[in-house]
Amino acid sequence: MSETDQLPRQLRLLKGLVIGLGILLGVAAIVVVFAAIWKFSEQQKPVAATTPNTPATSASATDSLPAFGTAQLALPVGCEVESATASGDRLVLLVGGPDECRRVVIADLKSGKKLGEFQFPTAGQ
To answer: Pick from 22, 62, 94, 97: most CB atoms within 10 A?
Structure first.
């Protein structure tokens, strides 16, 4: 084979490689799009947040956790719950007020018991 025959063969190989990688890139993009669509369509619908005045009426929210009656989580005087978030079987309460009140309380939704808390004391305490 001469040098002139070798060049077209290399160009054909390069052209084939570029076409193959382009097809691979297109297939990968399609897989990513379908994976994103599947992930977003399979997400569970969030359970509506409840406050003491508005109990949950969703059947799925009441069926997934056993009832534990009335649970009390004591807070120091002057402290108030600023927000409550349910995640899995945990309830996370953000407590605010004066500096001694600042804390995050974590409770078990299945038993209603306090699991623990994170306090944020000032440097002088």
So the answer is: 97
